[in-house]
Amino acid sequence: MSSRRVVLALALSSLRYRAAASLASFVAIFIGCGLLIACAGLFETAIVLKAAPERLSAAPLVVGGSAGFKLPDEESQVVPYAERAVLPEDQVAKISAVQGVRQAVPDVSFATVLLHDGAPAASGAAVLSGHGWDSASLGGYKLTEGAAPNTPGQVVIDATTASAAGLHAGSAVDLAVNGQRQSFQISGIAQPSQTVRAPAFFFSVTDAQRFNPHPGTVGLVGVFPADGVDAADLAGKISAQVPSLTVLTGDDRGSAEFLGVSGSQLPLILLAAVFGGMVLVVMALVVSATISLTVRQRQQELALLRATGATPKQVHRMVVMETMAVGAVAAVCGAFLGSLLGNWIFSTSGSLGIVPDELAFTQDIIAFAGGIVVTLAITFGAAWFAALAAARARPIQALAEAAIPGVKVNAMRRMGALICGAATVLLAATTIFMPADTAAAIGGPAVLTGAIGVALLGPEIIAWVVDRFGPFVRRVAGRDATLAVINTRARAVAFAAVLTPITLASAVALGNVYSETTAQKAQIAAYAGQLKADAVVSSTAGGFSPDELAQIRSTPGVSTSSPLVTSSGWVEEPYDGNGSDPLRLMGVAAQDQGGTVLATEVTEGSLTQLRGNSVALPASVAEKLEVKVGSTIKMRLGDGAQVPVTVVALLDSPSSYASMILPADLLAAHTTSGLASQVLVRGGDAGAIVSALSDRAKDWPGVTVGDDSALAASFQASADVEALINYLLAVLAIAYAAIAAVNTLAVAVLARRREFGAQRLAGADRGQIRRMLFVEGGIVAVTGLVLGIVISLFTVVPMALTTGEIIPSGPIWVFLGVVLAIFLIVWPATALSARLAMRRNAIEAVKMPGQ
């Protein structure tokens, strides 16, 4: 039998005698592999963006406007637009003329909400539910009752909506169309060819043209190929003959129907990339710590193998084979966990509003294979390095180290720790000098580099803490602490494996949460601080019609009113260089005699000229672009339109989260709904204005009136979605680190059964041993907490400084919750492990193998 086969047989046979250590490695690898596969699935979902069409399912091809903004400084990167890119009406004829097209059906969409007793029956502001009757064929809608809407004032509603509201053909119904209440007669009820979750209201051709928020355009075109024509081939012909359009087939058609699908790509990639990178680092640290601990506990056995003739190479190979055998089984089982976790994370992201409900989770063989390969690579690397020191040690030296493990780390680990420490400081220092809106992406990795540094120096840190604070612990914890301090010092290597996940959990939790709360507060303050209002009128029924805007303006006590429109876009010439992070655009009315709703100081120019194609730029943006008042620049707005605008004013806006100010009517014309959903009002008496507007708003469907706090609340809602990504990352990373801490702690305690037996034979009872273990766990928990807090400060404090603050923002209960969670991880795990370790009587325990 070859030496390789002998080593393999010895490695596999030894696993049966090391159930606890093998289980610890299995759990760490199993969960890590599951998380990696989940991240791979999220990334694949972001790339594929699979969203099966519903209302457009009957049309084999769907043609829309431009897919997104092709970044001038990137060869191929395209960023989706924030709004729907429309098509000119004359493009329909060009599409129809392409050989192989049987029929091209234009579709116009506009905000339509069913009213019940004058109020929206359901929140439908984000759903463009109104369409022309011609586009009913795109979803295979067939009349089950009544007739088509041939004259203005008639409407066909879908069967689901009709059933829920108790409506039928011939009934009168009130609808809010583009924010304005109107009465219609239901001419018919239609049933789609498949399930469609969104309500649909089909109007006559005349009404559809009248309600179109972008006259002269269509939202998209559904194409039916001629008999025998392949949809994919026809898509290529249309793309070639009618350039600058997006031709979609299959499940890709869903991105044209559901506006949020394309926009979810960047958040999903961010979620997958950031979380995947975090999991890689956390997994590498946790698996390395667990494997190192199990190898350290076998130091005496490995030394005996060396003393009986085994070569360093054989010892090294045996340890690696044992670990890889466990790792292979754990990775295969982790594939099942990865499927469950991926679906759970994705569904949670959908329920939190991070991704649209219509987007389907995609996770195929590539995600599973990639996760398993990376997991096995990390496991192999951890096992290879963990076994290296034991294999190289001389037999007599190894036996001595097994009795009293050394705490000094080698030169390579020390150098790695210094590099990680320097990187942490450098990242923190760099963050301070960056704008707040980009600082988090730079400073965030400081948590991981700091944790890696702690992991590399773990034994020395534990030893230093015990040497420095041991006397204090003895005074506080009493006589049971004496042996605990000695044990902690002697077992610094083992306790370092527990220290690593505790440090990680606390650093990630505090760093992610408080960085996000600090940035969020600054973001909301910056956005809301650019505006001033005594009352804020908001619509949940699609927006405000011109008549409603006029009535608001004429309300007694109102001196100034302005629609507020928000979107995003780029300065294309000269290019602003913002790439995938477009500038925030705000649309307001020009300054009048009553004043303006802008609170930002004008440093040059005048807001009275904010009319037509004009823009007011933040002074910092103007300086970067080297433009001044009177300059003409070209902007790429949210719907993809390139619009030349003249700079009429420069604003003293905050350097972070600054907004470009456009005329409200200009910006609204390039949004999906074409309407403003908020109106800002100023006047003499805020209370009187709110009261007067509230009385008037009773006749307006879905309209609410609030004070200026409603302004911050609207920004808060959008900022919350971004924050939820970080919170979700933090929860998952903390959960993994917590499981790893329990896992490693249990192994460390269970390996000391002989020690506990000897102590009991010497006169100690089980209670004294448990108290000793609690003190040991407390030392490690406090050390990990302090280190986690310090590491998180390298992320949180620079983030606060970029926002102009010294003290980070956030609820104190998060800090207290993290502290409590760490002790709830350490002490219950210690108590349970101690109970299991002392089940046998003392004499039997002393006879057992182990340390």
UniProtKB/TrEMBL annotation:
The keyword Membrane applies. It comes from the Bacteria. Its main location: membrane. Residues 274-393, 728-841 form the ABC3 transporter permease C-terminal domain. Pfam families: FtsX. Belongs to the ABC-4 integral membrane protein family. This is FtsX-like permease family protein. It comes from Amycolatopsis halotolerans.
